[in-house]
Each structure stands twice: as C-alpha cells, then as structure tokens.
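job 3f2a | input accepted
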Amino acid sequence: MANHLVLVRHGESEWNKLNLFTGWRDIGLTENGIAEARAGARALAAEGLKFDLAFTSALTRAQATLEIMLEELGQTGIPVEKDQALNERDYGDLTGLNKDDARARWGAEQVQIWRRSFDVPPPGGESLKDTAARTLPYYRAKILPEVLAGKSVLVSAHGNSLRSIVMEIEGLSGDEIVKRELATGVPIVYELDAEGRQISRRDLAA
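job 3f2a | predicted structure (206 res):
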C-alpha cells in the first residue's frame, strides 16, 4: 500500500484578499476562503480518501480550513495536532504592509528578493531557509513517521511551511522551490515511498 500524505494551503484569508504580508499575524478566512476549503474537501471525498490523523499550525486560518474540511468529509473525530512549527514564514517588518506599499518603500527589486529568494530574510523576519529549519525537523519527527506507518495524513498549513515540506518530498533545491506556487484551498495528494520521497503527486484543483 502506498503511503498517502495530503498537503493543503489554507483558504483565502482576509489579508490575502487585501494583498498584505500576513506571516504570523492571526487572520481569519474570507467567505471565499471558506468556500475554497469546502471545495477542497469535496475533491478529497471524490477520491475516497479517509484520514487517520491531521496536523495544522498554531494560526486560525489553517485551523479553520482543517475544521471545515474535516466537517465536510464527515471525519471530525480524528486526532489533530497543532504546532507553530507549521506556521507561515515570519515576514518581520513587512507584516501588515500592502505589497505595493512595500515596493514603494524598498523598491520592487528588493521586495522580490525577500519574497522569492531562498535564503535572504526580510528585516526582522525569516527566509524560506529559516522557515524550513523549523518546519522540516517537525515534519521528519512527527508527520512522516505516521505516513510511513501506513496512515493517511492531512496537513493544513501555509504557503511557505508547505513549500519546505514539498522541497523535501520532491527533492527540490532552494532555487527550485521558491518558484513553486501553492494555490489556496487546493489539496496536494502525495504517495510516498519507504524513504519519504514522492511516488506520485496529484493536485485536486476544483
């Protein structure tokens, strides 16, 4: 039997909608974000996937996405572990700023470097490399062993914490992973081999 791991970025948040850097700020879902979570759950139901346990971050938008999905799937009774190791990247001084305002302040080129380089953090914040340094030890210690034990695992988290995990599963470089976009509310279904590497990947876009 293949080992199933499903990763899903939370549905659209209020600050996603406003084009703001969110990071560790605890922001709720929009109505569209709630609808995205429900649509993602229906896509999983169509695949017949049943989960043994789930993991999420310490932030409301990821937790709410998971709750909505499990309710839609009729699987609310499974164990759920919450940990800030799965939190979004900390954007430091950019947090709460509109991305256009940040470009006006620091220049488009500098903001693009902060957003899309692997190891250059924004002022007071984390790079993707820093995010991976806290996300991956948790993934290896807590999540992957459950998958390799034959369980189906659902992870609801954030664009950059999930990028870290995708980088590990797919064996990508830092330069490769920063180019990868993860859509809100779209489940990514992996089958993993005994080493935790990708056998197959399916994106369940509506």
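job 3f2a | The first strand starts at residue 3 and ends at 9.
job 3f2a | closed
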